[in-house]
Amino acid sequence: MNLRVFKKDIEYFVGEFIDDCSLFVAINPHKNSDEIAQIIDEAVDLYNDLKSKANHPEGNKRAFYQALTKEMFEKLDALCEKLSTIVSKAA
Fold this sequence. Notes:
The protein has 3 helices and no strands. The protein has one domain. By secondary structure, it is an all-alpha fold.
């Protein structure tokens, strides 16, 4: 895996998630904005953590980046579940 492509993937996927959160707040400005802000903060922390880990690989690089990709999608999936729960409460 190319490091440059992986970093772009991090930016794309985490950025799209943050855009989804921002869109919900824009459409529903008075509903659960504090909870959404907390989720956005978690996404930004995830972004920073993944970028930091990507810049400092350990051991076999191929296996490291595969594990990091898996971690990224698992954590983004968990954040999506949190967002879905908040959105369904607001509906």
